[in-house]
Write a structure and sequence with these properties.
Blueprint: H1 4-14, H2 18-33, H3 59-72, H4 81-97, H5 128-134, H6 156-170, H7 185-188, H8 246-255, E1 277-279, H9 348-357, H10 363-380, H11 392-416, E2 421-423, E3 426-428, H12 430-443, H13 448-463, H14 492-508, H15 525-541, H16 546-554, H17 560-566, H18 571-583, H19 592-603, H20 607-614, H21 622-625, H22 638-653, H23 664-676, H24 680-698, H25 703-707, H26 710-720, H27 739-742, H28 753-757, H29 765-785, H30 791-805, H31 810-830, H32 838-841, H33 843-857, H34 868-887, H35 915-933, H36 938-980, H37 988-1000, H38 1004-1023, H39 1028-1041, H40 1068-1083, H41 1090-1111, H42 1115-1118, H43 1122-1133, H44 1139-1164, H45 1180-1187, H46 1192-1208, H47 1210-1221, H48 1231-1248, H49 1256-1265, H50 1272-1292, H51 1303-1320, H52 1340-1354, E4 1359-1361, H53 1369-1391, E5 1401-1405, H54 1410-1420, E6 1426-1428, H55 1433-1439, E7 1448-1452, H56 1453-1463, E8 1467-1474, H57 1485-1490, E9 1494-1501, H58 1511-1520, H59 1528-1541, H60 1547-1564, E10 1568-1569, H61 1573-1576, E11 1583-1590, H62 1594-1616, H63 1620-1638, H64 1641-1644, H65 1648-1657, H66 1673-1684, H67 1691-1697, E12 1718-1722, H68 1725-1739, ...
Parallel strand pairs: 4-9, 4-10, 5-7, 5-8, 6-7, 8-9, 11-16, 12-14, 12-15, 13-14, 15-16
Antiparallel strand pairs: 1-11, 2-3
């Protein structure tokens, strides 16, 4: 993850959802086309939109575009369909964004006229028969499942070679060369490659290209990348080639190419016998820079092979580890395969590469290539194959030839492909379908004659009217069940492909079948083509294969209208075949049924087809044909079930068609559908068809009565009334028979099993309720449409409905009431307006209404029939509970009370068990028996008490169910009574019934029905002038809305919370509110049940929605008190315009009323009619007042309410916000005004989302200003809001001006937009002219840095200047300090204003750098007076009073920690943290002290802002802008954890890590400025890093292994333990091993016996001295390195050795000094002591050196640095990384040696850049001494991971033990031997190899079936929609 491109590619491949992948695809497209089109805006674009043509002359821009394309293309090979689709999406967006390429002079290339130009290109000739006989079939993979896909081909030669190989393999040699040139023009005409410029040190930088993306392997998704060989680099020739042509010179150079030299995987050559070898670290495929004379591999070698085995030399590695080994993409060499010659179609290279993939043996590769070609031809194919410089006529011919050749190849793929995939229960041919779409996209641009050629070939594929040669072995589909070879008439896959081609052909080229041309003496051409299509479809419909039948039916869909108009004589034949297909379906999995029925439904809409169906001479009657469809009602495939219902419904909607087929069987099937169907779309279609059927029957006298007898009705009611959970009796179900029933081999699948057995564990109870409700509505429709009224009607329905509405079953009573309610509603809908109510004309209706009212007025029953089983279970539990006293506690049996042997749910029978008896059993009875035991049997009593708790729980659940049943039955009866419109004596039972459901019903469907009943009742009251009930209902609804304490908090518990922003979770006020909420819940009986309060609020909202739907704009008139119920509390409190008066009323009496009003308004406003919303404008002044209240809870409620109004009436309310509310954000005099306005903007951003886009600019700048607010809550909320707003800013451009905004506001928006452009794009920042003299010449990038710093200062912003080490961050900071101090002083002189009085600035830095800062300020400026605030406490106390007299105070972090009480009281102008990553740990006292500093401007300087993990970045921004990155916990969850989880690079966590990195990068981008040395310092020599591996000495090996074994177990326990002490022990152990790797004396110290024991055990002489140099191989290696540098040798020795082994050593020019000078870094001072004592003094006495470590006094450190830089006689500087690694400039040295290494990679990077910075003239060599196989080697692995993360977040655009897993920590203790390393390597190779194919491996490789959504868009409808048309 070293670049944004890599992260987007990872998301493209591993995104967990379609939206994630689509977003990645869109951003990839934006990234790709940015080089060609500067302003890229992606919108859904109609493909037919004319795009402007542009010039295609900028080769560099196109090269960058093709580089991105080359990275995307390999993802088309992925085994994942989602990845291939996402890659296609990205490429499609690129193609659509680039204007269509046209040659000069090109006009319309669609040659559809009859006038044909001369020299017509012929269509390639090939025989379908020969191809089928001799061509190699393309299957799923041809046994290549385990072959990794190759990356994109390198150049056009490889493309042609691959194409030739593919054609030969498939038997398509006759196609080879079509569309290609004979000569490799790319090679012949390539310009001569000039050798790259060499640096003065002789090193030439070359970079390898990695074009293949991470994780593209379909077999091993964990691979991060698949490197491919890079293009060879031509070496300069010394011969005189001037007499040769460019072509001849290039040919000669190609012959002499020595290969690429980009990969480094082998050690450099060493002197024979050398013990210390240098080896490169990191992965072998990492891109690195190499020296010019390096030879890594020849052209034919694989770069991934081990270079050591081939004798490859790699002397140097030039790499900047701060980039994690990554190479800037802009310098990568690209694949030449995508490039084309100037003046040709720019996409030709891509088309050629994809053309090769079309013939791949892997179906995924073919599919990916076809998808991409489809998009390419569709969007950019208009001028394919054309060239500049040709006439329009020549280009037409060229284009036609190009189209013909591609069409021929696509047809070949269609013929040869045999792959089929499975989706759910259907078969899909993804390759053939996609290739057909690709062919259709090509047909769009082909002339008519070429299309006719394609048409004829497709017909050949369908007809196959030729005999195929007998196959040598049986092919699929040619063998009978008895094994006898049968005659092979045709290959169904080829026919299938041909029909697919025809389907898409007639869809995209409808001109072929339009009646607009004729041929003499024959029928019109269009008619002939249409007849061919019909013949092909009929042939396909008669095929045995279901897939062929399906596509045959669908290919007639686009031409149905033409078929009816031009070939009416064929209609009868088509219809006959379609019906025949349906009759012959023998498999329940036949997918063609849907397509056949869809075609039938389309055809039956035409009068000509209706006439045929009505004419028995031409067609069988519908009474015979329609039952053919009945067997498909319960088909396995949901699409078929939906199609059969819709088809039969379409038959009924045609008035002239016979309805005789609408029979009882048909009605039974529809009703059964309603009862058992789980899918809502099929259920809704079934109910619509049922209604149409009943209306059809009722319109014909006697039909409905004869079909629906009372017996049938009773059977339907019996099914409907089956209790939930009880299996449905299917004995009365009608099962339509089909051809499959007669075939014993046919498959039938019981798809309704779960619904029929009513297992609520398998079917959601909500689905069962939906089915029952739909069935009840269906039965009500029969009642409403029954044609015969009077006594027959009463006799038919009274017994049934009266029985069920009087039932003791809740379900039966409920459903009967639903049927009665729906009957009444349907009557009202059908009856004329003046018709009497239903109860006036139907005695049954009156009786049902009366029964419902009586039930509502009486007390509910003791129980319902459904509860008998539960009561019986409770009876058994109670019996067992009481019997336990006898069996377990030995009480006499006679003492156990009787509970009755029978149960009675009514509670009326004596001596039976009821729920009341059960409650007594666990109450008084249990207590009496317990008392009889006394104090004995305590253990047994404990067990019995546990049993009692379970019984009590069962009884409580029983009572809860009883209450739920009461609510449902009452609500249904009340709704039925309301629907009958009868006037009750008392309305309270009615209102109570429906309002209880509104309040407590958990089922949303049932609650919605009650809401409808509320609306009906209010309407009834309004119609009958009953004023009181509606007002009471609305008031209750408003009360219900306020019961949710989360939405409507209690005012009395929050009166003490005045300051703060409660809405923002990270605020202090929010924490206080949470405590208050806990008190609120504790004091309220039902407060703990938040679910109930949410249900109540949902019901109230549903009721208001229904009221608004019924009354619309009249709602407030018909319910006069509604407005007061909603807004009364707010209007009462805000009668005054003074916020103080409002707060006084709130404090005394109206606090809760105001909160309630705001909560109700928030819920009700979205439901109001549009015309009523204008009344809300009356509330704007009141909301303004409440937003400024001193009570935080009032401000929060007002902000939430106002933001909801903004969402509903955006234009009016946002104008008020911008004009009246936003100004309060900057009110420095009133904290509450700022808090309220900020909180409102926070909610607006959360709720409005994209609706807020036109107003973003008005919001973002004021919010930005609050990011430095002195109030913590405002600052936190503002920074969080800004983070959301800033993402929307790029989308705002181009939107129209918001209506109603004045010109002044719009002018202000333009100014603020300019500011944001500068904030988001540093290149747009205005140049800042320094007002003071700086005594230094600023480089260009330094001036840009100062511009950025000045911009931050201008807008009160803060940032991190994180330029690479050595780029002059100190100088840039001094410039801005000098300038701003000068400007402030000058302003004060002119205005004497208090905001410009003199304030000192504070610079906090490491103690080593205080002197450096002081002298640098004096050196570069004249107007700044610096002072060093250092020394002991007494010195500082003396200096502190004088600080205000100076301009710049320089101090150290330690001083700030100790003196923070004094320093935080000072107001500082600037606070600059040098090496600001020191405050990375937010929990240290030092960090907390620094964050207490108060300054107008805060600036952090750090070359490495992230060192160990991204959590450190949070601490830095918490100093700059607290809250900007959320709380530390939320930041850790959102960013840190996902990123750290991907430490091992596994794809499972890769997506989350990539998303987190991308989001974090975008959020911090505006406040980071990062430049790398290689980008801005072109004159800086390279930095060369080499790792020297040292073997342990024998003493070290003994001590290492001994310690590891003894400590391993303790380490494992410590890692698993939470104890900090134990974890500290682990770190002490690791520190022991680190010391041991350096020198055994560091661990043995002066312990004589231990030293002797170690020497003896290691096989050494016990008299040997431990400080002997051979016991510390690192000292030997250091000595050798210093000798190589010419350090430590006498003059004679130097003369003898001559040239050093170092590759960049220059010849000495004389003089007594060494030609190299060295920095030696160690972690510990003790190691420096050893180097000084045991190496320098004993073995290298001539070395001159200085030393700088923690023991060096701070005031002397600067002098040491100055001396070393200026005195070339000093050979070495010994330093500790901690002291010498920060901020110093040590360019006097050109060699850096690390004897030890830090866990933190940035510390090492910082240290090595002490020498590699501005001023360095030599190549800097960095040597890292690493002890092989030990802890040190593992530390280097940790460093690589941390570097990778740091560079992903902080790019050029902008840790404790607990973070490691147990295995990793334990692994640190182990020493890896050579044998173990070799064994691990072999194991990796074994895993990587495919191994032999066997059944087990193949079965393991078979993945899951694709999801139903995978091929959802692979059909004609979606394809035509993508073209912007319909068929």
């Amino acid at each position: 993850m070293t670049s944004r491109l890599d992260r987007l590619l990872l998301l493209l491949d591993t995104g967990s959802s379609t939206s994630v992948r689509s977003t990645a695809a869109k951003q990839l497209a934006q990234l790709a086309v940015k080089s060609v089109i500067t302003d890229v805006a992606f919108v859904e674009e109609d493909i037919k939109t004319v795009r402007q043509n542009v010039a295609f002359q900028d080769e560099q821009a196109w090269s960058e575009l093709l580089a991105v394309l080359a990275r995307i293309l390999p993802y088309l090979h992925s085994k994942s369909h989602d990845t291939r689709s996402a890659a296609t999406n990205a490429l499609s967006q690129i193609f659509s964004s680039i204007p269509v390429w046209e040659p000069s002079g090109c006009s319309d290339v669609h040659m559809k006229s009859a006038d044909e130009p001369p020299a017509i290109p012929e269509f390639p000739n090939f025989s379908i028969k020969d191809l089928m006989e001799r061509g190699t079939r393309l299957l799923a993979s041809s046994g290549k499942e385990f072959v990794k896909p190759s990356a994109i081909l390198a150049n056009s030669s490889e493309v042609k070679k691959a194409r030739k190989e593919a054609m030969g393999r498939l038997g398509l040699d006759f196609l080879d060369g079509l569309g290609g040139d004979e000569m490799d023009w790319e090679k012949e005409l390539a310009p001569e490659v000039e050798p790259e410029t060499e640096a003065e040190n002789g090193v030439k930088a070359e970079e390898d290209t990695i074009l293949s993306p991470p994780a593209v392997s379909p077999t091993d998704r964990s691979n991060s990348s698949t490197p491919i060989p890079s293009l060879p680099v031509l070496e300069p020739s010394e011969e005189d080639l001037s007499n040769l042509s460019a072509r001849e010179r290039n040919r000669l150079k190609r012959k002499r190419k020595a290969g690429n030299a980009a990969f480094v995987s082998a050690p450099p050559p060493q002197a024979s016998g050398s013990k210390y070898t240098a080896q490169p670290t990191g992965q072998p495929n990492k891109a690195r820079l190499v020296a010019k004379d390096d030879r890594s591999f020849t052209k034919t070698e694989d770069p991934s092979t081990n270079g050591a085995s081939n004798g490859i030399s790699s002397d140097k590695v030039v790499v900047d580890p701060s980039k994690g080994g990554a190479v800037n993409p802009k310098n990568d060499k690209q694949s030449k395969a995508l490039e084309v010659r100037p003046g040709t179609w720019i996409w030709d290279g891509i088309a050629n590469v994809l053309e090769v993939d079309l013939f791949s043996q892997a179906w995924e590769v073919r599919h990916g290539a076809a998808m991409c070609l489809r998009e390419l031809f569709k969007l950019q194919g208009k001028c394919g194959g054309m060239k500049d410089g040709q006439t329009a006529e020549e280009n037409d011919i060229t284009h036609e030839r190009w189209c013909n050749h591609l069409a021929a190849k696509l047809l070949c793929v269609s013929v040869l492909d045999r792959f089929g995939d499975f989706v759910s229960d259907q078969v899909v041919a993804p390759v053939r379908e996609t290739v057909s779409q690709t062919l259709a996209s090509l047909l769009l641009h082909m002339p008519r004659r070429s299309v006719l050629h394609v048409h004829s070939i497709l017909l050949q594929m369908i007809r196959q009217d030729f005999s195929l040669a007998a196959p040598t072995k049986a092919l699929p589909g040619t063998t009978r069940s008895d094994g006898v070879l049968r005659e092979r008439t045709h290959v169904w896959e080829v026919r299938h492909a041909g029909l697919l081609g025809i389907k898409y052909e007639v869809a995209v080229r409808s001109d072929l079948v339009q009646a607009n041309d004729t041929r003499e003496g024959s029928e019109p051409r269009s008619k002939a083509i249409l007849r061919d299509v019909v013949d092909a479809a009929v042939l396909g419909l008669g095929d045995r294969d279901d897939d062929v039948r399906s596509v045959a039916a669908s290919c007639l869909l686009p031409v149905a209208g033409h078929l009816v108009a031009q070939l009416p004589e064929e209609l009868s034949r088509v219809l006959t075949v379609l019906w025949s297909c349906l009759r012959d379906m023998r498999d329940d999995l036949s997918s063609s049924v849907g397509a056949v029925m869809e075609l039938l439904g389309k055809l039956v809409k035409y009068d000509e087809v209706i006439a045929i169906l009505g004419n028995q001479a031409e067609s069988e009657p519908l009474s015979t044909l329609s039952p053919t469809l009945f067997p498909f009602f319960r088909h396995t495939i949901a699409g078929v079930r939906l199609a059969v219902v819709n088809t039969l419904h379409s038959f009924m909607t045609v008035p002239t068609l016979s309805k005789e087929w609408v029979t009882e069987k048909f009605l039974r099937l529809l009703f059964q559908n309603l009862v058992v169907e789980e899918r809502s779309d099929v259920r809704d279609a079934t109910l619509a068809t049922w209604n149409t059927a009943l209306e059809t029957l009722s319109s014909n006298y006697g039909y409905l009565e004869n079909l629906v007898t009372q017996q049938v009705l009773l059977e339907w009611y019996a099914v409907l009334m089956t209790p939930l959970g009880v299996p449905i009796d299917t004995s009365t179900f009608y099962h339509a028979s089909s051809a499959a029933d007669a075939d014993p081999t046919a498959e039938r699948h019981p798809i309704d099993k779960n619904m029929l057995i009513q297992d609520m564990g398998l079917v959601p109870v909500e689905v069962v309720w939906k089915a029952r409700l739909a069935s009840a509505v269906a039965l009500a429709k029969i009642t409403a449409l029954w044609p015969v009224k009077g006594a027959p009607f009463e006799d038919m329905f009274r017994p049934i409905l009266k029985h069920y509405i009087s039932s003791t079953s809740m379900l039966q009573k409920f459903l009967a009431a639903i049927i009665a309610e729906e009957w009444a509603r349907m009557y009202d809908e059908m009856a004329p307006p003046d018709a009497p109510p239903l109860i006036k004309i139907s005695p049954l209706a009156d009786e049902l209404g009366t029964a419902a009212l009586v039930w509502l007025q009486e007390d509910p029953p003791a129980a319902y029939h459904e509860m008998a089983f539960s009561l019986a279970r409770i009876h058994g539990e109670c019996y067992n509970l009481l019997q336990s006293f006898s069996t377990d506690c030995k009480l006499p049996f006679t003492a156990i009370p009787s509970l009755g042997s029978e149960i009675d749910i009514t509670g009326e029978r004596e001596g039976c068990f009821t729920i009341e008896v059960g409650r007594k059993a666990v109450g008084p009875m249990f207590d009496r028996l317990k008392d009889m035991l006394g104090r004995t049997k305590k253990r047994e009593l404990g067990i019995i008490s546990d049993k009692r708790l379970k019984v009590v729980s069962s009884i409580d659940h029983y009572l809860e169910v009883k209450v739920q049943h009461d609510i449902r039955a009452s609500a249904a009866c009340a709704a039925a009574f309301i629907a009958f419109k009868s006037t009750p004596d008392k309305v309270s039972p009615i209102v109570k019934g429906i309002m209880n459901s509104i309040k407590n019903e958990e089922n949303a469907d049932l609650q919605t029905r009650s809401a409808v009943a509320v609306g009906s009742f209010v309407k009834f009251c309004v119609d009958h002038n009953l004023i009181q009930p509606p007002d009471k209902i609305v008031k209750n609804l408003c009360t219900f809305l306020c019961q949710d304490a989360e939405q409507t908090p209690t005012f009395s518990y929050t009166t003490t919370i005045l300051d703060g922003v409660l809405s923002f979770q990270g605020s202090k006020a929010a924490a206080t509110l949470a405590e208050s909420a806990k008190k609120d819940k504790a004091s309220t009986a039902n407060g703990s049940d938040t679910t109930k309060s949410r249900v109540t609020r949902r019901g109230s909202v549903l009721a208001f929605v229904e009221l608004s739907n019924r009354f619309g704009s009249r709602l407030l008139d018909v319910v006069p008190k509604m407005w007061n119920s909603m807004a009364g509390g707010l209007t009462s409190a805000c009668q005054s315009a003074d916020v103080v008066d409002v707060d006084n009323l709130i404090a005394t009496t109206l606090g809760q009323d105001v909160i309630d009003s705001l909560s109700v308004l928030e819920a009700v406003v979205p439901t109001l009619h549009e015309e009523l919303r204008q009344k809300l404008s009356e509330l704007f002044p009141m909301l303004n007042l409440t937003l400024r209240s001193r009570y935080a809870i009032i401000r929060q409620s007002a902000a939430r309410c106002f933001s909801t109004i903004c969402e509903i009436m955006t234009v009016d309310s946002m104008l008020v916000v911008v004009e009246n509310i936003i100004p309060f954000i900057g009110d420095s005099s009133n904290l509450h005004n700022r808090q309220g306005a900020t909180e409102l903007v926070y909610h607006i951003v959360q709720k409005l989302d994209v609706k807020a886009l036109p107003y973003v600019i008005f919001l973002v700048v004021p919010i930005l200003g609050r990011m430095s607010d002195p109030d913590d809550d405002i600052r936190s909320t503002a920074t969080n809001t800004f983070a959301s707003l800033v993402k929307m800013v790029p989308l705002e451009a181009g939107l129209p001006d918001p209506p109603g905004f004045s010109q002044e506001l719009l002018r202000r928006r333009d100014e603020e937009r300019q500011f944001l452009a500068q904030l988001l794009d540093g290149s747009k920042v205005e140049r800042y002219v320094l007002p003071v003299k700086i005594k230094a010449e600023l480089r260009k990038y330094q001036q840009e840095g100062i511009n950025w710093l000045a911009f931050l200062a201008k807008y009160q912003l803060h940032g991190i200047l994180c330029d690479d080490m050595g780029l002059g961050k100190t100088l840039q900071s001094i410039c801005i300090l000098a300038s701003k101090h000068y400007e402030r002083a000058r302003k004060y002189e002119e205005t004497k204003s208090p905001d410009s009085v003199h304030l000192p600035s504070l610079i906090i830095c490491p103690p080593t750098l205080t002197g450096h800062w002081y002298y640098e300020i004096l050196k570069y400026t004249e107007n700044l007076r610096p002072i060093m605030y250092t020394g002991n406490s007494r010195d500082r106390n003396r200096l502190f009073p004088k600080l205000s007299r100076y301009d710049v105070v320089i101090t150290s972090y330690e001083v700030v920690r100790n003196d923070i009480s004094n320093l935080q009281a000072v107001k500082w102008h600037y606070c600059v943290l040098d090496e600001g990553h020191i405050i990375k740990n937010a929990k240290t006292k030092l960090t907390k002290a620094v964050k207490c500093i108060q300054a107008h401007h805060r600036l952090i300087l750090s070359g490495t802002p992230i060192q160990n993990n991204v959590l450190e970045l949070w601490s830095l921004f918490d100093f700059l802008m607290p809250g900007f990155l959320g709380t530390e916990t939320s930041f850790n969850e959102r960013f840190s954890k996902p990123i750290l989880s991907n430490r091992d690079g596994k794809s499972k966590s890769g997506e989350a890590a990539a998303l987190a990195l991308e989001a974090l990068h975008k959020q911090v981008l505006p406040f980071l400025l990062r430049r790398l040395k290689e980008d801005v310092l072109h004159d800086l020599p390279p930095k060369i890093i080499q790792d020297y591996y040292c073997e342990l000495s024998e003493v070290q090996k003994y001590l290492y292994d001994n310690f590891s074994k003894s400590q391993e177990k303790q380490a494992e326990e410590a890692v698993k333990s939470e104890s900090k002490e134990k974890q500290q022990h682990v770190f002490q152990s690791l520190q022991y091993l680190r010391k041991l790797c350096n020198h055994p004396a560091l661990v043995l110290k002066e312990d004589g016996p231990a030293i002797q024991e170690a020497l003896v055990k290691a096989g050494q002489n016990k008299t040997d001295q431990l400080n002997a140099i051979h016991h510390a191989p690192k000292l030997l290696a250091l000595k050798q390195l210093l000798h190589d540098c010419g350090i430590g040798l006498g003059p004679s020795v130097v003369a003898e050795t001559g040239k050093s082994e170092l590759v960049d050593t220059e010849e000495s020019t004389g003089g007594a000094f060494s030609q190299h000078r060295c920095l030696i870094f160690c972690q510990m001072k003790q190691m420096l002591d050893i180097i000084e004592r045991d190496l320098f003094k004993q073995h290298m006495p001539s070395v001159t050196y200085m030393r700088l470590d923690g023991g060096t006094e701070a005031n002397k450190r600067h002098a040491i640095v100055q001396t070393f830089n200026s005195d070339p006689s000093i050979d070495c500087l010994l330093l500790t990384t901690h002291v010498g690694g920060l901020g110093l400039t040590l360019t006097g040295a050109d060699t850096v040696i690390f004897v030890e290494h830090d866990w933190n990679p940035m510390k090492d990077v910082q240290a090595m850049d002490r020498a590699h910075r501005i001023g360095q003239k030599k190549v800097v060599n960095v040597y890292r001494l690493i002890t092989k196989g030990t802890l040190e080697e593992k530390i280097m692995g940790m460093q690589r991971f941390k570097l990778n993360i740091a560079n992903s977040v902080v790019t050029q655009q902008n840790s404790g033990l607990s973070s490691m897993d147990t295995g990793f920590v334990l692994d640190l203790f182990k020493r890896t031997t050579d044998e173990e390393a070799r064994a691990a390597g072999k194991q990796r190779e074994k895993k990587a190899s495919a191994g032999p194919l066997n059944s087990k491996r193949i079965s393991q490789d078979v993945g899951d079936l694709p999801s139903e959504e995978e091929y959802q868009g692979l059909d004609l409808a979606h394809f035509m929609e993508s073209l912007g048309g319909e068929f």
